[in-house]
Write a structure and sequence with these properties.
Blueprint: H1 2-19, H2 25-29, H3 31-43, H4 55-62, H5 65-87
Helix pairs in contact: 1-3, 3-5
Length: 119
């Protein structure tokens, strides 16, 4: 039963990723993040799989799933921050425009970057 729940969770995650309308290409170009997504996909239920993943292997991957999800979230965080800033009408600085943590924040708040958008 637990194995079926694990597989259903992973399948739901992958379906949600496909249906979200988000462009996943930045993550797919990043080798480390792509590996994390591949682990989740490995757990999912796919009709084209000729042989199911052995229970021992499935559970070994599952034990690292919290790490996978957290790291994928970390990957997307800068993208979400940019989208939020755009939605609020704030200026969004690219990495090339950023001088450093102690420089004024490009959003125009008057605070240092490290105390404002750099958190």
């Amino acid at each position: 039963m637990k194995d079926l729940l694990i597989r259903r969770w992973a399948t739901g995650f992958m379906i949600g990723a496909r249906c979200s309308g988000v462009d996943w290409s930045p993550l797919l170009r990043d080798k480390n993040s792509l590996f994390l997504l591949t682990l989740i996909n490995t757990l999912s239920i796919r009709p084209e799989d000729p042989i199911p993943l052995p229970t021992k292997e499935l559970r070994k991957i599952w034990r690292n799933m919290d790490y996978c999800v957290i790291e994928i979230d970390k990957f997307w965080r800068p993208y979400r921050q940019q989208e939020l800033a755009k939605a609020k009408g704030m200026a969004v600085a690219t990495e090339a425009e950023q001088n450093g943590r102690n420089e004024p924040c490009p959003c125009g708040s008057g605070k240092k970057f490290k105390k404002c958008c750099g958190r």
